[in-house]
Give the backbone structure.
Amino acid sequence: MATLNVTITEELTLNGADRGSTNSLSIASVTQVFHRIVTCPASQDTTVATFASTVDDSTGVAGSNNVGSLDVGDVKYVRLTNLGTHLINLSLQLTTTDGGDAAANESATILIEAGKSFIMGATTDAIAVNDTNANIDVTMHELESLLVDPGSNSVTVEVFIAS
């Protein structure tokens, strides 16, 4: 087992005063890492990571929800960085079914500007989508996958996940 050390530093001097900060986090008991750089073709949604109840590194059968997946219950840290020069939409595909093997039936989308990152911790019971007009019970749901929509431009992203 290893410890993942994460440090986020903002450096800013505004009107002669230092307004930056540094925050550090140590995540213990990391036994696995998923790290890849992916080029997402223009006008094509690209799934860059999937999560299920168990690790599956096989190529599997087409249509399986957990092919090549990471164990949703083991994930401790997720970072996706837009390495491109254009905006992307990062879609957090969510499942309302506990257990991590159901197909996504909800999503939340976040705009990630060029050079910026999205970071989250655990993927089990980690995200809620609230629609006050639909009178929906807001409960935390599991992350089923990360999907990148690059728009009309090809873009490269870096994915780093520690379990």
